[in-house]
Amino acid sequence: MVMMPFLDRDKTQRAARTKDTDRVMLINADRVLYCGLLGSRSVATLGAITVHISLGAPFLIRVDDGPWQERHSALIMPYVPHQVRSTERLIASLNVEPECVDVRAVPWLQAGADIELEIVAERARSLYGRLVGRGGHDAARPYDIDQELFGGPLPVRRLDSRIASVVERIKANPNDQFPAEECAAALGLSFSRFLHLFRDETGTTFRRFRAWKRARSLLNYVNLSANLTDVALEVGYPDASHFSHSIRQIYGMKPKDIFAGSRRLAVLT
Questions:
Q1: 124, 92 in Cβ contact below 8 A?
Q2: Helix or strand or coil: residue 23?
């Protein structure tokens, strides 16, 4: 989890218990289950395996420049541009970080596996109902997302140990500015060899991977009443303009709109 040296979570935390709200997000290093406001979103390009899940009426989704489709659940692979619309206020979205999962060994991650995908979606709906149901859920009591949604841990993807060390460093400190040249030198690789190996192992470029992890770390702050400029600097963006542009490009929403829609969001870590 990202450390917050100047943002005091105890003083700014909102919705500590889910009984106070119908919006909740479970988050750990490799998974996010968001059940909250859909908002007005433009095209999003997330770095995670994403499953959008209806909590009521079906939603509309468009992938790349394709046609709009009506779905109750939809699987989007990492870095694929897509847009979601719905008549419902709330939607659920599951994010799974791809570098830690063996995609080939997971049935619901295969093309055309709609039945298997809907089983995961129905488990997410059931978990959401329990989280915001009678009595709510205390943030101090953790949930095992894999057990709840998949029936157990997902098969682990084994990365080259050198690339795995860089991946873990970025995940642990997404706000750090260490360049690819520094990583290559630390591993004893040439710059070009490191970039090639990183892409082969993770399926994306070093720059794009780091940009996604930095944007993902924003989720740790969304229900805090904090100045957006402070958040931008804390997450690792050089200024508010770069922060706003990058977040909108990835999430399809401006940071101010994400924070406004998260005021009653209970975040369970």
A1: yes
A2: strand
Listed residue (262, 267, 266) closest to 38, CA to CA? 262
Sketch the domain layout of the chain as residue ranges.
Answer: 9-268
In degrees rounded to 5, what are phi and psi of residue 94?
A: -105, 130
* Angle, helices 206-217/180-187, rounded to nearest 10 degrees: 110
8: its two tokens: 């005091």
Structure tokens at 168: 């873990």
Q: What's the first-to-final CA gap in the chain, in angstroms? A: 9
Structure tokens at 111: 């093309």
Q: Cβ neighbours of residue 242 under 8 Å, at least 6 residues apart?
A: 232
Phi, psi of 165 (to 5 degrees): -65, -35
Residue 168: other Cβ atoms inside 10 A: 13
- The tens digit of pLDDT for each residue in 166-208 reads 999 999 999 988 899 999 999 999 999 999 999 999 999 999 9
Q: Which two tokens stand for residue 134?
A: 């009678």
Helix or strand (DSSP H, E) at 255 = helix 255-260
Cα–Cα distance measured from residue 88 to residue 211, given in angstroms and rounded to the nearest whole number = 30
Hey, what are 166's tokens? Answer: 């860089």
pLDDT tens-digit readout, 141-151: 667 899 999 99
Q: In what order do the strands lie in the sheet with 73-76?
A: 73-76, 49-54, 90-96, 31-37, 23-27, 265-268
CATH 3.40.50.2000 matches 9-268 = no
